Amino acid sequence: MPSRAHSMSLLGTETAFEVLAEVQRLEAQGREIVSFAIGEPDFDTPENIKEAGIEAIRTNYTHYSPSAGIMPLREAIANYVSQTRHIRVDPEQVVVTPGGKPIMFHSILATVNPGDEVVYPNPGYPIYESVIRFVGATPVPLSLREERGFSFDVDELRAKVGPKTSMIILNSPHNPTGGILKPSDLEAVAELALRYDCWVLSDEIYSRIVFDGDVYSISSIPDMEHRTIILDGFSKTYSMTGWRLGYGVMPKSLATDVTRLVTNVESCTATFVQMAGIEALTGPQDAVDRMVAEFKARRDLIVEGLNSIEGITCLLPGGAFYVFPNVTGACRRLGLRSSRELQQRLLYEGNVAVLPRSSFGMRNEGETQEYIRLSYATSRQQIEEGLRRIRSVVEG
Ligand code: PLP
Q1: Beta strands in the chain (DSSP E)
Q2: Full-model pTM
């Protein structure tokens, strides 16, 4: 076989998909697995959005669209982002993509040079580090600490951002911890981004799934909208993961570059999917409210349940649909060296799928505790059954 590109050795992956494949393999063998592994809402896409998509196919919105998206959707997104972030967004600043994920790849490719440094949250969504390495830049992990409600230490941030930094990546509400960044944390990032003239990629894909209080966007801080790329989309908010619809909001000149990348890679996002997106943003929002209320009830259920298991402690996250409990005590009880071993034990002995800390990056310097991620985007009944199984593995 001919050789493959060297750059492929730099590209990481999302191990959640590997665990998902393993869960499906076990299920095919007849095992019943309670899965807390996958990060997608278990609700169906709301009917009005489905109808809009079907109607759009019927009326032949089945052709190519402009690479940056159809104008009515870009306008609806610009209005929505203007209102929610308290900034003035022009539709020309919006690039629509098949899911939010391409915005990560395209915006990093368009702004970061080989040898640059990019600061990113760790633990964090694994694709950030993967893309940073792929473009030949140096990933600089910023540790999120349990004792700070999974926020970062501002002194550590200051020590890690400097003249070589070309981008700082933020994600709030956060995958995998559910943590939300406080305005003071965002101010600290903004001050450094302005001082060192760097971009901020603000992954706000969970911005509507917030339980107590508000979520803040760094783009709302004066002068930051000129250097911020907001990543958002429809997958989580409207239960539309399989439709593939997301977007980035960025300064116009960068939007032109990112659009050129879209032309090279995807051409455009499916046109009827974009039509459904207009209905999602401008139609009734009660399905979103119901979904968020249900996630809140599940969060309370799972946090209380986990905290009642010997050797597990769990903070109450403010958003998204993940918990990231500390399982150091559970690992010790079972004589396990890492959360990866606990994940395996839970899967093969307990028939419960979770993700280990290692799915979200390597340990930070000095990090001694063990964590797992559970996605509670599953029914309360499944959550109760899963908790019962975890208890029986850990407590014996
Ligand atoms: N950003 C974060 C933090 C995520 O967790 C995900 C999906 O899991 C995405 C972005 C990508 O979302 P999409 O499915 O819209 O590409």
Answers
A1: 34-35, 94-97, 117-122, 138-145, 151-152, 165-171, 199-203, 228-233, 246-249, 322-323, 352-353, 355-356, 372-375
A2: 0.97
